[in-house]
Amino acid sequence: MATASAVKKKLVVCGGNGFLGNRICKAAVAREWDVTSISRSGEPNWPSVSAHQTAPAWSKSVTWRAANILHPETYKSDLEGADAVVHSMGILLEADYKGVLTGKESPIAGLKRAFSQTKKGSNVNPLERQPGQEMEAAERGGELTYELMNRDSAVVLAREANEAKVPSFAYVSAAAGAPVLPGRYIRTKREAEDIISTTFPRMRSLFIRPGFLFDSSRGFTIPMAAVTYGGFLANSLTGGNLTWLMGAGGAKPLKADLVAEAIVEGLADDGVKGPVEVSEIESLANKAWRREQFSQLEVFCDFLKASDAFDCRGTNGEVFLSFVLLK
User: Residue 38 forms beta bridges with which residues?
Assistant: First the structure.
């Protein structure tokens, strides 16, 4: 719940219909921000990204736009007047790797391509793209590669946000790679971070680096989170010395809602910028939780004051609020 003094912000979430993206939209709506989601299909397929079979009530407050992030002309107007833009899209597995896992690709040929040192991204350098020039996948068959989705799509969005004079930009990156993933997965994430931070210094950029994300609405993520948490404990016991080996498997898994709350809190706090690691994500989410609790207490106190049953401005009220917030 937003306080009466809160300034209403405009947030644009690219990938807002995804697993994490829709939760970012929800967290921003809870603060009464003006939220627009940009994605290829518009509104989410709710059963696939949440526990809802139909659109939840909060989703009615979001403008769900169908647009192509690689074609800025399809969403350029949505960035006008925005206070913040979020890039919450990317791929974990490329088509070659998926083909091997599903039996559609030869294991040797598929893995060789998947773990190749480099693949093509966009047919156009996102920093040199001219107005109206179409960006497309340059790899054979229009394959969506890490270079295209994790790096080039983020860079072109950041460029458009910078040109629209958007003050803040958040990029959902990752804590690390993983032994089972091609090295290009995390390399393209870090390349995007470097390009955005050095090319657009005027814009406050946040690079969110969570580990494995889980939620009960995606049942398969729960046992995977348990395994990952075991890796996190083992890595912690060695003082983090297993990070080089385990990658994201050695980072603490986080609930998707928590990460979403942290992103919105970080965008609301001008002091947050640069890489946001797992510990800071948790800290920001905790700060957001306390803010929400305080907001609810203010409403409760207003009710009590109206009934003359309790003076929240007096000593008793201060002690009561402090006790609850410090628990």
Answer: 14, 65
Beta bridge partners of 170: 86, 206
What is the distance of C-alpha 83 from the center of its chain?
Answer: 16
The CATH class of 10-92+121-285 is: alpha beta
Instruction: Please list the helix, strand and coil fractions of the chain in percent, rounded to the nearest 5, in that order.
Output: 50, 10, 40
- CA dist 49 and 96 (Å) reads 24
Q: Spell out the domain ranges in the chain.
A: 10-92+121-285
pTM score: 0.82
Residue-wise pLDDT for 25-50, tens only, equals: 999 999 999 999 999 999 988 988 88
Q: What CA–CA distance (Å, rounded) separates 166 from 178?
A: 33
Question: What secondary structure, in 3-state letters, does 20-39 show?
Answer: CHHHHHHHHHHCCCEEEEEE
**Radius of gyration over alpha carbons of the chain, in Å?**
21
Distance CA 241, CA 246 (A): 10
With 50 as the cut, is the pLDDT of residue 80 above it? yes
Instruction: Look at residues 185, 44, 68 and name the one whose alpha carbon lies nearest to residue 137.
Output: 68
CA distances from residue 31 to 62, 82, 175, 219, 326 in whole angstroms, order as listed: 12, 15, 27, 29, 22
139-189 pLDDT tens trace:
988 889 999 999 999 999 999 999 999 999 999 999 998 877 889 999 999
Answer yes or no: are the C-beta atoms of 100 and 111 closer than 8 Å: yes
